[in-house]
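Intended use. Records such as the Cation transporter entry shown here are meant for training and evaluating sequence-to-structure methods. They are not intended to support clinical decisions.
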Amino acid sequence: MDPAIITLCVLAVAAFLFVTELIPLAVTAMAACTALGILGVLPSKQVYAGLSNSTVVLFGGMFVIGAAMFKTGLAEAIGVAVVKKAGTNEIPLMAAIMLVTIVLSSLSSNTGTVACLMPVIVGICQAAKIPASKELMPLAIAANVGGTITMIGTPPNVIVTGALAAAGLPTFGFFEFAKIGVPLSIIILLYTLFVGRHFLPEKSAGQMDEEAVKAAKEEAGAGGDAPKSKTKMWISGLILIGVVLAMALGLKNLPLHTAAVTGAILCVITGCLKEKEAYAGIDWVTIFLFAGMLSVATAMDKTGAGKLIADTVVGMMGANPNPYVLTTVLFLISNILTQFMSNTASAALLAPIGISIAQSIGVDPKPVLMALGIAASCAFATPMATPPNTLVLGPGGFSFNDYVKVGVPMCVLSLVVSVIIIPIMWPFH
């Protein structure tokens, strides 16, 4: 059988398993690249080559630094301080919650941020007699959009960067995502404050899933109620600032992944995290899913499977499809998929296809991949779209339709903002 057809068959099975989650996402990704190796599509040295990718190393290091922020209590202390200073008026409180969540989520776990702030917000709402639903949905929204600001803010950003690297193309810089992430975050924040909040239901705090909150905190590295050391808080904060500065300066001898790993090592050496806590702080699902799908992307490129998909899509849109229209269509596909499946899986599935389509019509793949990545992170419209959405479901007393009413207009707004800003920041030609 033609290697391209074999690759497409493996991709189709992976897509089905990603959507249904019959088996874990990381297992699906690793099984896909393993199958391509067994079937002779990929040489043995390339099957697991994704695990040595520098972006995987970067993500692993930043996971550890993020876990240190939660373990030392720094992230929670920053969030709680800002939220409490905002007072008990609904709109200023909402603005403070969203602003601090956007900032924290851009550099650390959005799930951990929501898990740490949610109990505090519920308590403030009960004391001030504000419906908890009015503040908890904005918390989840801010956590999702905040991740779009940096490369490590959300898995889709890492996925699209890695896909470009795997294809031998120029990649995105660590802060390059801020060109779209910052304006999008500001617009979503303002929309929520002045328009979106009118769509929010007025419901008192429901039953909080203590186990889910505890699990989310532990996953981010914030588990345990032991007294927090202010010294270690400062150390973890300084390490984060140092790493971010090193990345911003683009030092020749200190590439992004080296800076991240250096920061992770310092977190352990200084006692901000124990060795086992550092390992536990890494989101291994994202690491293995990313590495596995990098190898699948390589197979799609080498066998021509990606070109087959691209030619089919382009053929349906005419001989010379407008790149703006094409980007809009791909944004919609990615955004719709991410409402019902993991945003990581959505980006991993579409990134290599996006590159093939862009190359087939002779445009730069970067704006197309940026649109795919941002669309995958704009998961506002269903409770199962992202863990932050799921975490606030019970305490906010939300129904499925509440997410639809609030989230669909935000998805449309995100599409409009992206289609305007992305081609300006990353021209097609």
